[in-house]
Fold 6-phosphofructokinase 1.
Amino acid sequence: MRLLIGQTGAPTSVVNASLRGFLAGAEGHDVLALRGGPDGLVDGRFTPVTLADVPPEWTRRGGSWLGAGRRAVTDDDLDAAVATLAEHRVDGVALIGGNGTMALLGALTDRAERAGLPLYTVGIPKTVDNDLVGVDHCPGFGSAARYLTTVVPDLARDHAAMRSIEPVRIVETLGRSVGWLALAATWHREDPAHAPHLVLLPEVPFDRAEFLRRIADTLDAHGRAFVVTSEGAARELTDEPFDAVNHTRILMGGVSRRLAALVTAELGVVARGEVLGMVQRSAGALASEVDRREAAEAGRRAARLLAEQATGLMVGLHRTGTDPYAAGYDPVPLADVAGRTRPVPPEWCTTDPADLDDFHRWLAPLVTE
């Protein structure tokens, strides 16, 4: 078989592990690399690739060996992609990505079928936002979460030292429509004295008066207020393009700064908004070993599914054990995943980090190795 492996959307610090896992699983088959994300799919930027071409050290670096990107794919784009796949005699396509990628792969599957092109398709899950349906957690999330569990407690300790001139600090994580990373940033298992006092999630409607009341009460109780917010929380305070098609308009972040300005204006205290930004998804030095292994295994399983002529599927990921932790990889239909978002479940939708012990137990195996 001739297989094509590509990535769309943004990189993660373990996405190259999925690539190497796929190439290892595809041994004995002819594999082409799709370079440059969806633009490369439309333009036919396909080059031969083997496992030896992707050095192991790339699995410990941020970025993407394949290249990445986003595009609002049109019907004409799909027709061009199908024609290019036929020209290169591609039998199976695997794309690494999130729910937008799975929607693209599903559309490509349908377009190829209508064009009479036999094509097998399998998705490899990847997103730091952890918003994919069909997984307990998504490859890429564990490493971004581990980064946050490492640096945010230090930011809290720094804030405690500077409380006299900076009483309020608001730290912003990624997460345009879900709050999984903001929840991860509340991790305080080794240092409960410096846990965040408040967390803001997109799943919990922002209440301006309640937010200001909580900040005032926290200042009275502790002399400082340390807050974690998702970039997609309190979105009414910003003009960010949260609903842009296929996320083709860049989110610059900044809700933490808007919240800090609100605190200063209404409460008359100094507040700092801190935007952590892209380092969350790119810090290979702090990547989770569990995440790296699972990303590689997801890639390997995708290659096996294509070799078995499976189609219209995404590699799933679920827990098969908790003590010790273990994962399974049963596939799920693309139709169940494409374009859908998995929010934080109701039991973890809280603004109070003290209510998140169960979430922290769920998170622990992903960030402690």
User: Anything to note?
Assistant: Residues 266 and 342 are 35 Å apart (CA to CA). The first strand starts at residue 2 and ends at 7. The mean pLDDT is 94. The chain is about 35% helix and 15% strand.
